[in-house]
């Protein structure tokens, strides 16, 4: 099995147990694992053995992620030893209620943009100049977005896009599940 593994749960250097697990996994598979980083410390993820990463943006989901300014600050440290391969935007499952959405006129996607597409476009317009400035791929990985919106994002923003479909898989047959959870962190939402 030589596939690449993208881990969407962000690397948290303060979680000592998780860092120890990451070290063991990365010792064996560092070339195949792409770690998601939600904070500014690329040095910490490299210290655990990671060489590949994607940065997570702070979306309207209010989960983990970096602001546009934090992304820029994170990328300024050129000696971190980690190859950043794009941006992750983890959108909410429910349609984001954004006040200002764009009217779109692009092939196959005319009319008012969905909240998912509007938010993703805003992040694409943030990521593209950063990617160019730091010589990184103009690539975004999205979740909870329709195929039509993801295609529009790629076309309008001129970037490559991949869709993470894990939620669609585990929500595919709700009666087959017993859902449990653990609170990892509590974030202020500014509401």
How would you describe this protein?
This protein has 191 residues and is α/β, with parallel strands linked by helices. 34% of the residues lie in helices and 23% in strands. The protein has helices spanning 16-29, 42-47, 68-76, 115-134, 147-157, 166-170; strands at 5-11, 33-37, 52-56, 83-90, 103-106, 109-112, 139-143, 160-164. It is globular. It starts with a strand and ends in a 21-residue tail after the last helix.
The amount of beta strand, in percent, is 15-25%
Major pleated sheet:
6 strands, parallel
Helix amount, in percent?
A: 25-40%
Order of helices and strands: EHEHEHEEEHEHEH
Task: Give the terminus-to-terminus CA distance.
Answer: 45 Å
Instruction: Assign an overall shape.
Output: globular
Strand order of the largest sheet: 1-2-3-4-7-8
Compute the average pLDDT.
81
Category by helix and strand content: alpha/beta
**Total helical elements:** 6
Radius of gyration: 17 Å
Low-confidence residue ranges: none
Q: Give the strand tally.
A: 8
Gist?
The protein has 191 residues and is an alpha/beta fold. It is built from six helices and eight strands; from the N terminus they run E-H-E-H-E-H-E-E-E-H-E-H-E-H. The chain has a six-stranded parallel β-sheet, with helices on one face.
């Amino acid at each position: 099995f030589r596939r690449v593994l993208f881990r969407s749960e962000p690397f948290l250097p303060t979680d000592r147990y998780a860092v120890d697990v990451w070290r063991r996994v990365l010792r064996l598979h560092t070339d195949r694992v792409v770690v998601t980083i939600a904070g500014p410390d690329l040095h910490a993820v490299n210290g655990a053995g990671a060489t590949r990463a994607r940065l997570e943006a702070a979306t309207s989901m209010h989960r983990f992620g970096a602001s546009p300014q934090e992304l820029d600050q994170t990328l300024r440290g050129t000696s971190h030893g980690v190859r950043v391969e794009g941006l992750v935007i983890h959108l909410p499952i429910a349609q984001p209620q954004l006040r200002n959405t764009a009217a779109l006129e692009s092939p196959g996607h005319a009319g008012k943009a969905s909240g998912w597409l509007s938010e993703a476009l805003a992040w694409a317009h943030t990521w593209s100049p950063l990617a160019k400035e730091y010589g990184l791929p103009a690539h975004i990985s999205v979740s909870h977005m329709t195929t039509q919106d993801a295609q529009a994002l790629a076309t309008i923003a001129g970037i490559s896009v991949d869709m993470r479909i894990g939620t669609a898989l585990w929500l595919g047959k709700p009666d087959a599940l017993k859902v449990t959870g653990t609170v990892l962190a509590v974030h202020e939402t500014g509401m």
